[in-house]
From TrEMBL:
Any GO BP annotation: activation of innate immune response
Matches recorded under InterPro entries: STING (IPR029158), STING_TM (IPR055434)
Protein name from the UniProt record: STING protein
Pfam families named among the record's database cross-references: STING_TM (PF23417)
Domain spans labelled STING transmembrane: 2-88
GO molecular function, one term: cyclic-di-GMP binding
Gene Ontology CC annotation, any one: endoplasmic reticulum membrane
Origin superkingdom: Eukaryota
Length: 89
């Protein structure tokens, strides 16, 4: 389940990076509509429920290794940002 959570975090971070780029092109590409830019960067119809399901399963199966959940997700997010930044995906 942690692997699926990380994959969904990757999709979320990728969407955030795309949105940061698309904000500069709101007028030319999306006719000033932030919602069109948002829907172009995130496919929430698929990734939203998947992130919720995987995140819930991960929390339910967390074996209590003594580390806080935020640390696990933070480290996964940092690793995925590094992968995206280095183009290793």
């Amino acid at each position: 389940t942690f692997h699926f959570v990380v994959l969904e975090i990757r999709a979320l971070l990728k969407g955030i990076c795309y949105l940061a780029e698309e904000i500069f092109h709101l007028q030319s590409r999306h006719h000033g509509s932030f919602w069109k830019a948002l829907s172009a960067c995130f496919s929430l119809s698929w990734h939203g429920p998947m992130l919720l399901i995987c995140g819930s399963a991960y929390v339910a199966l967390l074996d209590g290794d003594g580390q806080p959940l935020g640390l696990h997700l933070g480290m996964a997010s940092l690793c995925e940002l590094l992968v995206l930044a280095l183009g290793l995906h």
